[in-house]
Specification:
Chain lengths: 296, 296, 296, 296
């Protein structure tokens, strides 16, 4: 299979189950909504050593925000609902409540699972917090030094998927990186997914396990172009560098849509040779995304 | 005391000791150095509920980076060197090693305390890592999918200070926020400090303690303008909103310099009425920064 | 009439006829599409002394770009079709053809008026240009040092309107500016309009004429808060500063929609006191936009 | 000659004389200073069909701005002082006076040539303008709707040079573009130069003349990789794409410094094969910049 002359390998991405909360942050301007969103989703690339996986889904339209202000949808993901609730409390409490002019709304009011995030954060008001109804949503109002902070009582979460992914293999580093940037730009237009790594891109794809007992994951040596002389790298000579785009999302459909959109965008960039994907013989998880099915 | 007609209150900021590591991240372009820096310093506003305090200090000049590429100095701060070492390993390992085209260098080679951060991260190379000397610095080279990742063996840290701060009190929210943005812009030019909150600004200044046993800090009710009717807010009527700028740094001198620079910048913004500072009767820490001394 | 407690004055904006071309610029990434768009629309605030009025309308969705790459819609406006054709040739030829990785497509293929912009620019190819059909559009392909530059043969234009506007009057400069930024953010979501001034905002609203024979427009003294002592400023004391948002667009409906959306956004910002609009007793033009009708 | 394995061709760039004005724009925040600077320098890539050449030189340090606010140095360049004066009046009058919170200062007070730019713009104040001394500089104060606009009476200009340049020739488009971006980032750190093209990069390098009588410049066919089959492109097969960085500046020394800094930065990017430069057998101008001399 080919797109724009780029080979799409007949392989699949392997993802794993994760709990995903979706939060809508609004602020006085887009710029300030983004500052809060970036702080709240930072240090959130992989649950291997980060306290959560997190990222910016997309800008909200003004018609989607209860207060008519600019907004950003973010996702915070963790293993199990208990961990996720803690992540929500600490990330919203420390990074959004503290951010200038923000408000926080439930990004999945229709989800079955609902955390009392706002209802717990409200005690920061030290007795002066209030409960109110705002556009048919139950919110808490916490007085702060710059006015009032509004946070919805409930934040919803769903059984989502982490680890959707594809590899962009290119003639050289710059082509692979430009293509990864184009892919992440495209995924930012889609509903329901995040790309939790820095700028949406993973430079250091990994394999499960290592030769060291203390290390559960290590560099994916088969795909390391500087290991050609050692005979370890199995890449054909026309591939000089690869980047991976990792996608978490609220559903299988959302991840498929973003994989499709991201791969197509990557294939518009000159120098891209091949699209592949990371899988681990089922060691990582049960969610398989066949590239040919998604793109067919 | 007045600057540009803005009253500088005769009070002081109260800071506390913290361990501060300084890291230099370089990348192919400024944009990608910033992406890695932002991810690595996110979810890092306050050790109350964040796993570390972290922020971007300033852009590096090309002449300051060992590889002649664009660079960003970041600081990662934590209570005690053991916590700080863990923060370095996880934040650099998960947010910079994974970021496209980055390299990591020691931001304080002259410090007494040096962590083996690079020397520990290198095992990700699964036996294919190498040690080398690069511009007189000992580095580890880890093969990744896009080439080689270079990380300096040692990352230095010092006894620093957290919680340097000042309040910007203004006619209304927008004036206070513009002034805070101007202050943070100015502090970004200074050496040795970070402003760890979102966009450098704190909206929700707090007091130590609360009426709830489970909550160690709560909103600083005296400065909440929406609590005027309750008689709790003690602000004069001409103050409509306040923001706080919190500053961590490698030394007392660095924090003084940034407080001075930030306060002066805030006082260029119309509508700013008063500069004050947060202190807690010594409950927080021993480092006192008198506004009049700093600005005198 | 009031929105969020902000008074909407019962007045109207006065616009004038202008010719509007709409161009779709695509590029390898959003960042590079924006660089080209900004250069091509710069020095384009007012036909009084700029060679054209120009601005960024909105980001294109990937599904809207013929090449599936990121895109930006811009508008270039001028008095008369002949001037407009020259503006298109020079701005696209000098600022988009020269920009890395860009392509140029017709932003209004359905318009009656169509310029041969691409068909004229193609001669830069010095005989090596080619004509082709691309997604059912006639394009010219010009070889350049980085590959091929694709430009659609035709660029469409319509009889549009310039000078749609509203004033944001606020307690102070920072509130007025934050509100203007929020308004411009909101207008960027709308179809068919641009805000040609720097960052979308006008600081120096003008009246027609002056006491100097050589000057056709001068500062709108009635609204200059620093002329209160001279008795020239007629603003009530609660208004400390005003900004104007000027809107050009392809149709009356588009301007009405953006005025509505921008005014509503401005009214979300604390410290905004009143919304008004600029009119000149019919000296400027025939297009009147009543605030109460638009918002009613 | 080689840098990082990149061949530096033994050739030279050919520049031509131009008049250069240097302007310092300050504003309430960096963001607003940049908005004004971008608008004022837009549509300013080449005097062939733009009304001027213009660009952003660098951010100013706070210690360099008379009002202690954030600032940006821009340059506006034109053929002859009369054209340049008109460019200053229209670009500052339409794009900076109109921009929120800006002030304008002389960027070369020490130059012999000084225009009365501020002294002419002041009449916009319609009789309410004032003259004043501000930090030992003569300024005009013009009342506007958001407060007062301050503009220095004099703006200085010098005999400068346009057309300093180098080519970045790389394996493919993405490598060449990344390297161009890295070069422009580096040049932004240097004093006294601008890169007037979009994002600092030229995609469509040209030769003097064409086969069409009406066209004075056309695509540089020898360097067009898609003309390989026609036998017109003389590039070796390993070069897949090139970009040019064009540099204007206040002096020969400034351009040499920026060429050196930009070329070194370009050579840090993988995939770059060769650095060359554009010259036209003296048809363009008398200023020659030998790559080997500059880098030697």
């Amino acid at each position: 299979m080919e797109i724009n002359g780029v080979e799409i390998e007949d392989t699949f991405a392997e993802g794993f189950p994760i709990k995903v909360a979706r939060v809508l942050i609004t602020a006085i301007t887009e710029r300030w909504a983004m500052e809060a969103a970036r702080e709240a989703t930072g240090f959130g690339t992989s649950v291997i050593m980060c306290p959560a996986e997190a990222g910016i889904e997309r800008m909200a339209l003004r018609s989607e925000t209860p207060d008519g202000r600019p907004g950003v949808f973010i996702q915070i993901c963790n293993m199990g609902y208990k961990n996720l609730e803690n992540s929500l409390l600490s990330r919203i409490g420390q990074c959004v409540l503290t951010a200038p002019t923000t408000a926080v709304f439930n990004g999945i009011p229709e989800a079955e699972k609902q955390f009392d995030t706002g209802a717990k954060l409200k005690f920061f008001g030290d007795g002066f917090q209030k409960e109110a109804s705002y556009c048919d949503r139950g919110v808490c109002i916490i007085p702060v030094m710059s006015g009032d902070f509004v946070v919805e009582e409930k934040i919803g979460a769903v059984d989502g998927i982490a680890g959707g992914n594809f590899f962009i293999m290119a003639e050289n580093q710059a082509s692979a990186l430009m293509a990864a940037e184009a892919a992440v730009d495209a995924i930012r237009e889609e509903e329901g997914t995040i790309t939790p790594f820095p700028g949406g891109v993973v430079a250091s794809g990994s394999k499960v396990g290592s030769r060291y007992k203390f290390l559960k994951a290590s560099t994916n040596v088969r795909f390391c172009p500087t290991l050609r002389d050692e005979g370890v790298c199995t890449l054909p000579p026309e591939i000089g560098a690869s980047y991976e785009v990792v996608i978490n999302g609220v559903s299988r459909e959302a991840i498929e849509r973003s994989m499709r959109s991201g791969i197509k965008a990557a294939c518009t960039v000159p120098g891209v040779v091949k699209i592949s994907a990371a899988n681990f013989e089922g060691k990582l998880g049960p969610h398989l995304f066949g590239l040919h099915e998604i793109l067919g």
